Amino acid sequence: MFVPIPLEMRLPESKSGVPVANALLIAFNVLLFLFGCHWSVGPGTGPLSILTYGFCHFGFWHLLLNMLVLFFFGPPLESRWGGRELFRFYVIAGLGGVALSFILAPGDAIIGASAACYGLMLAFAMNWPKAPIYIYAI
Question: pLDDT category, 16, cuts 50, 70, 90?
Answer without folding.
Answer: low
